[in-house]
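Re-running the complex after MR caught last week's input typo. The corrected sequence lines follow. Everything else is unchanged.
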Amino acid sequence: MSANKAESTRTATRSDRGVVAMDVARAAGVSQKTVSRVVNGDPHVSAAVQERVREVIATLGYRPNRAARNLVLGRTRTIGLLSVGTTDYGPSALMVGTEVAVRRAGYSLLVVNTIEEDESLISAALADLVDQGVDGIVINEPVGSFTLPTDLVGDRPVLSLSGHYGISTSEIALDADQPSGGRIATQHLLDLGHRTVHHVAGPSTFRSAALRTIGWRDTLVAAGREVPDVRYGDWTSRSGHAVGAELAADPTVTAIFSANDQMGIGVMRALAEAGRRVPEDVSVVGFDDIPEAAYLARALTTVRQDFVGMAGHGVARLVEAIETPRRQDITESYPISLVERETTAPPPPRGI
Amino acid sequence: MSANKAESTRTATRSDRGVVAMDVARAAGVSQKTVSRVVNGDPHVSAAVQERVREVIATLGYRPNRAARNLVLGRTRTIGLLSVGTTDYGPSALMVGTEVAVRRAGYSLLVVNTIEEDESLISAALADLVDQGVDGIVINEPVGSFTLPTDLVGDRPVLSLSGHYGISTSEIALDADQPSGGRIATQHLLDLGHRTVHHVAGPSTFRSAALRTIGWRDTLVAAGREVPDVRYGDWTSRSGHAVGAELAADPTVTAIFSANDQMGIGVMRALAEAGRRVPEDVSVVGFDDIPEAAYLARALTTVRQDFVGMAGHGVARLVEAIETPRRQDITESYPISLVERETTAPPPPRGI
DNA sequence: CTCCGCTTTGTTTGCGCTCACATCTGATCC
DNA sequence: GGATCAGATGTGAGCGCAAACAAAGCGGAG
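Corrected-run output:
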């Protein structure tokens, strides 16, 4: 009975599920464990056996079952990415950089996007990742004020590309030096002779937006200049255009620092529509250095971040943390630089 | 001995791996199978037991082990995405759309990017996905002429967002109607009175690029117009700028159809640098309708595709195919439309 | 020539879960 | 009131793999 049943079960299984290690073992005349050893590169296998097994694997088209391996190892060689679900350049670049680095390290990438700015949805997405059994997590989510649930993540290493969260006992927080970016942009405009600099900020829920704003404000305060009201956009050109229209109506505005390039594009359009020239009448500085920035009608002066490099560096450290676990809590800044192009110039002469 | 050993093993396991269904079962005074039933929403569980088990699950923080479930089910509720690793709007939008749709369907998304145009690398990436045990595959890879390996994918359903590959016994090929896009753009320019239309194409390895070019050429031929040499870019503004410079130097050029908006931006810049105005001297039509298109100094006339909608529709069909397997081979086109803005106008008057 | 220690290979076990089946309870019917 | 049946719960097995342990083979030191 038992033999019978086992036999029939195995046969059914084989047709249902494909070739398993045992099939290879039988065909090669070795034990299943030896097949496992060959597959995993165990050195304690004679060359002859190794070759025979490899041959059988090739002819049978055997591919190890990942689920089984994951189950027994308790690891998946998978990294989860929590990202904001937009097509914006920043998040996209971070994502591409992450994927490349993850794959280079021999891991797979599981992606979860959240368009929502809702804490519970983000937590749910995070839970999803944990449930999938990822070995590590990358958070490329610009969540500002949220406190994400600690117990969910446990001691799984976390790489945060947008500031420190404190949700794991092994966290690596890596971020472009956003405040410096805001400072550089603002200082550049001040150095050109502008009295003050107006600011189009990103959504206040985004930590990066808030930090750029801080850099801008600090610079103005340090220089003893008037600090205009902050205008908020939502990262899109459309919002930049709307905010820009208001700014364009104010003749005292001569310099604008936009928290990203897309909004800067909208601002410039609004300026043009109001008959104000860039940079002759108004200077504009963007942020990110999107690939199009240099090819706009007026090439945009902007602050460059190395998204891909940052993601790559961060993932490398994350993998390190996964493979040699330890408690750690690192926070690092990534350098940032100004790219001067055509949209900034000294202010127009004033009648004073 | 066995009891002893089992006990110690279990204890070690518990501390290593966390809470498992058996722990919940013991705490709730039911069998492990009943816990499984509750977790999976089996209706044949009394309300009382259900509630008790749920409570224990919550207090113990039990989360089912995905690997174990995958192993026994032979399915992962995971979909793999093979995408081109760029930050371009099209691929990004397709990816976001895919992710959202996949998650809505209760699946997870495994992403593999390939920047390379190397067939073997793409095949390797595909193999990676299959090894991970994905239930279905989305190919958002603009590979033109490659014949991807059939045996790898087997009968796993495939959704192709870039044409038909014939690599699975259950394939859904969905694509924006690229030739129509090329036709609409070209016809629009012809209708405005231009004698012919010059074309900046995407890389020839991209199927979508080739199809847009076909639409363009067909329209010119049908109208009996001269068909200028195709100029090739690489989708970037930089390449558009380079090609645009050549075109700008030719005074007979009055209309340009660019295979994407980014290259269109570069073309317009080159035109401006050569002192040729858009649209007074030269008309430009782009492709994709990136979010910035409407906010450029000259709002770009372009061909709009609904990336997100297409991905969502396609994924829905893919999930359908996964859940009720059948042999199929569907090819569908997704509609496309012209968005007329400021960069197209009748040609300048000629001295004839 | 024996014993030790090394490498190579096999056997057994269990990872955590779901399925098929067995069992038990209580209600329903004539 | 006992046969019947439906629903609720438990039992045993096995998914495919790798770890621990055991056994066999082999060479060299004494």
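None of the earlier attempt is carried over here. The CA atoms of residues 125 and 309 of chain A lie 26 Å apart. Residues 1-15 of chain A have pLDDT under 50 and may be disordered.
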